[in-house]
Each structure stands twice: as C-alpha cells, then as structure tokens.
Write a structure and sequence with these properties.
Layout: E1 18-21, E2 24-27, E3 32-34, E4 41-42, H1 56-67, H2 72-87, E5 94-98, H3 104-112, E6 118-122, H4 125-131, E7 138-142, E8 156-162, H5 168-174, E9 175-186, H6 192-198, H7 205-215, E10 219-233, H8 235-244, H9 247-250, H10 253-261, E11 267-280
Parallel strand pairs: 4-7, 5-6, 5-8, 6-7, 8-9
Antiparallel strand pairs: 1-2, 2-3, 9-11, 10-11
The structure holds S-adenosylmethionine (SAM) and zinc ion.
Length: 283
C-alpha cells in the first residue's frame, strides 16, 4: 500500500515532499503523478527515456520461478540478515529495495520486520504491478536507479539490492547513517550447469567487482557470506531461468526450447550467491 510510504517520497522535479490528492501524488509545488490502477506510482520524470527494465515476459517468468520456491533460501538468508541489521537501529524509517522486481525479497524482509514499511523501486511497470501486491506494507514506485532517487535523505533503515543495478551515492543518501545496505550478487558458479549448454549471458565476475568498487567511497563492508546449494530443476523451471534473464532479450525462444529439451529433467543446478552487508561511511 502506497499510503504508509508517501512520507518517504520526494518529487523528482523539485525535491519537495508529496501528499496524496485523490488518485495522484502531488508535491508542494504542484507537480502531479497519477497512481496507476494497479497500485504503483511512477515518479519517473516526463520524457525519461532509455532502459525500461524487465519486460512483461521476463517478469512473468521471474514470478513463476520465485513462486516455485527455488530461491527461498536466498530470501530467508536476506530476511535474517535484515532482521539482525535492523535490530540495532531504533530510528524511524522504511526498507527500500532498489531494483525490487516482483517484490519477492522485500516481502520476505518485511515479514521479519513487522514494524517497518517497504518501498519497492524499479523501472519496470510490469515488475511494479506485482510488487504493489506482494505485501500489505509495500508501496511500489517507478524510478530509474541511475538517476536521483525520488526518496528522502536517510529514509531507509535497510536498503536492499538483489541482482539489480546499484549506484553508491544515491544508496548512501537515502540510507540512515545507522542503517545497512544488503546486496545479493551472483557468485561465479551461479547456475553454472546451465550457462554453457544453453549459451546464457552472464554478468562477468569482473563487472560485479567493479560495481562493488563503485560502492566503496560511500560504504564499507560490515559482513559477507556465501550461500551455495544444489537445486533440482525440471525443464519448466529451467525455461523460467532463461526467460527471466537478459539472454531472453537476445535470442529466439525456439532455440532455447530445443537446447533445454536435450538437458536431463530434472537436473542439478548450483545456486551460488554472495550476501554483502555494507555500513555507510560517515563523511
Ligand atoms: C535481475 S532483476 C532482479 C529483480 C529482483 N531484485 C529479484 O531478484 O527478484 C533486475 C531488476 O532491476 C530492474 N532495473 C533494471 N534497470 C533499472 C533501472 N535503471 N532502475 C531501476 N530498476 C531497474 C529490472 O526491471 C528488474 O526488475
Ligand atoms: Zn515538485
């Protein structure tokens, strides 16, 4: 529900606070943003072009894959880490998930933090339609995480970033100085059994390292753990992995279907992620 998080939002044009007026949000200077009937609001400035994030098909595949529980252990680990991190913060503030997708991980974290509201940020309206319904305490907002976020300074006690783009300066700005940033990134052997046979695109380990280096001026690492299990995935689940990832943008579905058909059903697939906890640097 958007209501509880409006106080954390800021106008993307003038930075003023927002209030609900009928079916829209309006800032003190009169900038107006319609609330979509699916419950999310777009705070993307007019004419913002470029990346639109995950497509409808990608979001559908991600929702199906996550609903089947294959990454439930990642959500559980993240929720536990968020619970521990939030336990030492008695400041007011919400949980912000930057690149929240369907809201799956934010919902798990909010279940662990009954007193906190959640803000799901994503650029994909298809993802936000799902995120808006993923939990009673989620408010879903469209924005571009490469730009200034439409979120107040120090609004978050916990910021989440799971398999999504991250920009250090803005994450630092929206995080309470006593808060924590929790980042989940794929390890080099994540889904490795599928990469070769299916010809999937991967985010190179070097690129991941460079992204973390960009956090360094704003954050210092407070903890890091690796989570590695072997999943048993049938062809349908493997199809969802392909369809929810970047490879689906670049290749024909038929080619993947043929390659998946040649794999064992089910087959063992490594789930390998790193959960990093970052503490904001005080300037
Ligand atoms: C790999 S998905 C991960 C989603 C979710 N965190 C999860 O793990 O289920 C990456 C997400 O980042 C979003 N995204 C991509 N570019 C973005 C941008 N510039 N600003 C905000 N979100 C973006 C996509 O729409 C997508 O939902
Ligand atoms: Zn404004």
């Amino acid at each position: 529900m958007l209501g509880a998080v409006i106080r954390y939002l800021r106008c993307p044009y003038c930075g003023e606070a927002m209030a609900r007026v009928n079916c829209s949000l309006r800032c003190g200077a009169g900038h107006n943003f319609d609330i979509a009937r699916q419950g999310y609001v777009s705070l993307l400035p007019a004419g913002a072009t470029g990346d639109r994030g995950d497509t409808a098909a990608m979001v559908q595949a991600r929702a199906a894959f996550l609903a089947a529980g294959h990454f439930a252990s990642v959500a559980a680990g993240l929720a536990q880490a968020a619970g521990e991190a939030a336990g030492s913060v008695d400041a007011d503030g919400c949980v912000v998930d930057v690149g929240a997708g369907t809201g799956y991980y934010l919902a798990a974290v909010l279940d662990r933090l009954p007193g906190r509201d959640g803000l799901a940020l994503d650029i994909s309206k298809f993802a936000l339609r799902k995120a808006a319904r993923a939990h009673q305490r989620i408010g879903a907002v469209a924005c571009d995480s490469w730009r200034r976020l439409p979120v107040a300074d120090s609004a978050a006690v916990i910021a989440l970033n799971v398999f999504a783009p991250r920009e250090g300066a803005e994450l630092r700005r929206i995080l309470n100085p006593a808060g924590r940033l929790l980042v989940v990134t794929p390890a080099s052997d994540h889904l490795s059994e599928l990469i070769g046979p299916l010809g999937l695109l991967t985010v190179g380990q070097r690129k991941e390292e460079r992204l973390n280096e960009k956090l360094r001026p704003y954050f210092e690492m407070a903890g890091r753990s690796e989570h590695r299990v072997t999943l048993s995935l049938g062809h349908e689940a493997v199809g969802s992995v392909v369809a929810m990832g970047p490879s689906s943008r670049h290749a024909e579905t038929a080619a993947f279907t043929a390659r998946i058909g040649k794999l064992p059903d089910p087959m063992p697939v490594t789930l390998a992620v790193t959960l990093s906890v970052f503490r904001p640097v005080t300037f």
